Amino acid sequence: MIHQTAVIDKSAVIEENVEIGPYTVIGPETVIKSGTKIHGQSVIEYAEIGRNCEIFNFSSIGKRPQDLKYQGEKTKAVIGDGTTIRECVTFNRGTAAAGQTVIGKNGLVMACAHVAHDCIIGDNVIIGYSTGIAGHVEIDDYAILSSSIGVHQFCRIGKGVMIGAGSMVAMDIIPYVTAHGDRAALAGLNVVGMKRKKMKLSEIEDIKSAYRILFMSKLTLEEALSKLEDSLSSYVKEMTDFIKTSQRGIARPK
Q: Are the beta carbons of 164 and 180 closer than 8 angstroms?
């Protein structure tokens, strides 16, 4: 059902079984796939919205990025299947740097959050109320960001990370940890999240052992990485590969 007061650009592609509420504006070059519901008074343009998504009132999706370098190049915002965008979220499209801003499948972006240009966000990610994510940030699958967090541009947040409310993230956060504070420091491992993912006890123990070697031994980071190089655990390899490819440096325990 499309409400009679909705304004839809001629170039927009609206698939079957899409609901669009009153006073919503669907702008140019927008694709909305089947089963998605757009609540009233939202604005969406230059975007691809997946199947079975729900976008709540007053959200702004795909508008011009807040980047002074942007020169009007054609870019877009992409929202994966099954993702929920709550009230008053701003989700800007990309710039020439990446071409798009993306959140994957089954995500949840809570009310008043902001996702800036060129962010790449994985599947099953939760972004809490009033959290602000600056441009070029990468967030991997199953990460959870609580409310009122600030994430500095170009930061990376690893798979399965849990970040506490009010944190200011200025460095990369390695996979499977918890972090909080200003500036955010590691506070241990996200064991609860790993158990929810039904990881084996032996796999969790491998990650615990790697964490101890990385941050609780007297080894330098380079020595610790060398010691973990022969680990057979794919999860430990994720952690070490993340560290080796970090450009901003990684957050550590206090």
A: yes
